[in-house]
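Q: Given only this backbone (205 positions), what sequence would you predict?
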């Protein structure tokens, strides 16, 4: 007779707001899909979801970008703003142009503006380095004060993300410490797979 292993609910971990760091400014070469390029300072007072992706990252196409699009469509942009960051660290000749990104955004109907990460002297773009991203897809959640409250790599649980976003939206002005889901992305194995594309040589969490 088969035995049933009960599902273990995710633990709730206290978030120490005083330890959260302010997200540094994005270093981008240009924006696509934005009549007025947004800035993190200009988005203060709103929760911000930043989705970092590459067009040729399987995990970005299968779950990272669809999740970001659902978030953008579910929340009032005056309360929560989704922005994309196209951060290319591989296959630059194929996916490193504005025209390619515009076509990609049109085909996938991305409902949020996307910044093109500024190139560096090496393979890894500037904002990717500045934010300490481990690969794509990566998702950052900022509270209304611009502090990083989640820094996730790989597949993100949609329900836990929704719980976190709801908590951050309602905590504005509160000085009490909140309890939020401890979110953990599911990092990919070596090389690109359907969960994401890690930076070469990056260590597992």
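A: Predicted residues:
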């Amino acid at each position: 007779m088969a035995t049933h292993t009960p599902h273990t609910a995710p633990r709730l971990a206290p978030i120490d707001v005083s330890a959260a760091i302010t997200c540094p400014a994005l270093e981008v070469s240009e924006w696509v899909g934005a009549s007025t390029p947004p800035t993190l300072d200009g988005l203060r007072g709103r929760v911000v979801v930043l989705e970092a992706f590459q067009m040729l990252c399987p995990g970005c196409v299968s779950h990272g970008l669809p999740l970001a699009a659902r978030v953008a469509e579910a929340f009032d942009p005056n309360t929560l703003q989704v922005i994309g960051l196209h951060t290319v660290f591989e296959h630059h000749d194929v996916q490193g142009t504005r025209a390619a990104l515009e076509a990609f955004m049109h085909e996938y109907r991305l409902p949020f503006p996307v910044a093109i990460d500024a190139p560096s002297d090496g393979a890894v773009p500037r904002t990717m380095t500045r934010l300490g991203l481990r690969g794509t897809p990566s998702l950052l959640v900022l509270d209304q004060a611009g502090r990083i409250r989640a820094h996730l790599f790989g597949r993100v649980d949609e329900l836990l993300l929704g719980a976190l976003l709801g908590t951050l939206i309602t905590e504005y002005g509160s000085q009490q410490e909140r309890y939020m889901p401890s979110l953990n992305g599911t990092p990919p194995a070596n090389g690109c797979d359907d969960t994401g594309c890690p930076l070469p040589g990056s260590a597992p969490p």
